[in-house]
Amino acid sequence: xxxxxxxxxxxxxxxxxxxxxxxxxxxxxxxxxxxxxxxxxxxxxxxxxxxxxxxxxxxxxxxxxxxxxxxxxxxxxxxxxxxxxxxxxxxxxxxxxxxxxxxxxxxxxxxxxxxxxxxxxxxxxxxxxxxxxxxxxxxxxxxxxxxxxxxxxxxxxxxxxxxxxxxxxxxxxxxxxxxxxxxxxxxxxxxxxxxxxxxxxxxxxxxxxxxxxxxxxxxxxxxxxxxxxxxxxxxxxxxxxxxxxxxxxxxxxxxxxxxxxxxxxxxxxxxxxxxxxxxxxxxxxxxxxxxxxxxxxxxxxxxxxxxxxxxxxxxxxxxxxxxxxxxxxxxxxxxxxxxxxxxxxxxxxxxxxxxxxxxxxxxxxxxxxxxxxxxxxxxxxxxxxxxxxxxxxxxxxxxxxxxxxxxxxxxxxxxxxxxxxxxxxxxxxxxxxxxxxxxxxxxxxxxxxxxxxxxxxxxxxxxxxxxxxxxxxxxxxxxxxxxxxxxxxxxxxxxxxxxxxxxxxxxxxxxxxxxxxxxxxxxxxxxxxxxxxxxxxxxxxxxxxxxxxxxxxxxx
Length: 556
Hints:
The chain is α/β, with parallel strands linked by helices. It has helices at 5-19, 35-42, 49-60, 104-114, 118-124, 139-151, 156-176, 195-204, 221-230, 243-252, 333-346, 364-371, 379-390, 429-439, 446-451, 467-476, 481-501, 520-530, 543-555; strands spanning 29-30, 45-46, 66-70, 75-83, 86-95, 185-188, 212-213, 286-293, 297-304, 321-328, 353-360, 375-376, 396-400, 405-411, 414-420, 510-513, 534-535. It has a five-stranded mixed sheet, with helices on both faces. The chain has a five-stranded mixed sheet with strand order 10-9-8-11-12. Strands 15-14-13-16-17 form a five-stranded mixed sheet, sandwiched between helices.
């Protein structure tokens, strides 16, 4: 339906009425995520989708004991058995959350990334003899695994098989959650067309190949179940025709009211386009090196040692950044470190003497062993240390990187509370990059375009994959790119505040760090939602590396 469920339903009803006279249609029953709203508009009956799918399987495959339905944005597991005289009763069921991992949208996005049609994608999965492990918990994290495998020369068909197996592992781990999957197993929904997912179910969920049943009408089993339920005399509601829906579309459906416009942020007054390019400097004296190796990017910073001499503790606004570099990790952290060191060296006529090295980030132990660092520091401590060195009296730190988000609360110069994002990348830099690609925007122009919006589009908090439906919906309505960009900035802020910060306290002196803080639209959205300034320190994109260098200086 591409974000237009009501219009799509109206078009389908129009086709039905062209083929069958309305008076010949005995009843109409709605089901599915958009079915309740449509049933309300038409004044007809709504049936829960779990029940609808179960009734369809009961009619066509009464031998089934497990039902798996995977559609574009939904995944369901239903366990059936005989109960209290019923030969086909729902014993237990589970649904996916608001995450696209384990759905058809997940597979479609990966197929697009690899440059294949979904049909060819399905066929190629059967060619793999070796199936690599790929993250199935989030489409953004899966992208990192895919890049790493491609760079190591893994064939596309093996990557595709890995993605199909990731879908099934995700279902087994996050939806089934220990429930016993009893054969025969009926697999339905649009994803049942995918040969790779069928293969994964056979290898991971059932003991024998013949225990897997694919219904003839696997794509529409929910609708089949709704029709069967409506055929019972006590449930039959006469077909009302499509005209109430037509009237609603023409007269009552209003464009969602736009969010508040964004103003130039107080805490990030300057517009910057990212890390400065290399330039020759005269090396002098000695320096402390900080290395922050993340899943998406690797950051390195050289701090002038003389600027820290005699500084009280480690918090010193006088800490001078001599040079820094910011480059993609690309699944090869050691190669990224080598390249980063070369880039730092190229920025000096005479490289300063490095007297201490600190490492942080998800690759901190690997990088420490590689360069022989003097200290290994967790990301929370490194980010907090950098914030305290650059913003007096800071009490709250927001840090949003490529795939990670962090919240830190400081009291009396110490970390009093902290948290990180879990298995969802919505609201991170990768999330923003995904949407930029869809809008055909340069990520460096995103923030300033958002500030020019006259009516930001409300998109709420959604998975990065599901956001595509919202974007398509608004684009089809002719919403300008600036309003879409501003809406996405709000979406990132709400995702971060509601999924990461949750109910934790936010102070008055907020430092916003990480590469995403370069986006002035997001800084403005934070200020609009919180009603207080949000400060972006200089070199915000490399604050983890700055913190590691400062800590190495302290521990030297």
